[in-house]
TrEMBL record:
One of its GO terms (molecular function) is isomerase activity. Residues 5-47 form the SnoaL-like domain. The keyword Nucleotide-binding does not apply. This is Ketosteroid isomerase-like protein. It comes from Actinopolymorpha pittospori. SUPFAM superfamilies: NTF2-like. It comes from the Bacteria. The keyword Magnesium does not apply. Signal peptide: none annotated. The lineage of its organism: Bacteria, Bacillati, Actinomycetota, Actinomycetes, Propionibacteriales. Keywords: Isomerase. InterPro entries: NTF2-like_dom_sf, SnoaL-like.
Length: 57
């Protein structure tokens, strides 16, 4: 599978937006970048699933 330049730019933009929202403590903005369901695996720690994995204001 190859990735296009546009795919790369899209990923960079989402990461940039995520850090801007996080720095501004705009958690609803950061949440808008994610899917409704996700799993965070911190390796060896019980994973947080769904809403529990997102910070609350």
């Amino acid at each position: 599978m190859t990735t296009s330049t546009q795919d790369y730019v899209d990923v960079v933009n989402v990461v940039h937006q995520h850090f801007q929202f996080s720095d501004a403590k705009d958690f609803s903005g950061a949440r808008s970048l994610w899917a409704d369901e996700l799993t965070v695996d911190l390796g060896g720690v019980n994973p947080a699933v769904g809403e529990r994995s997102l910070p609350t204001p």
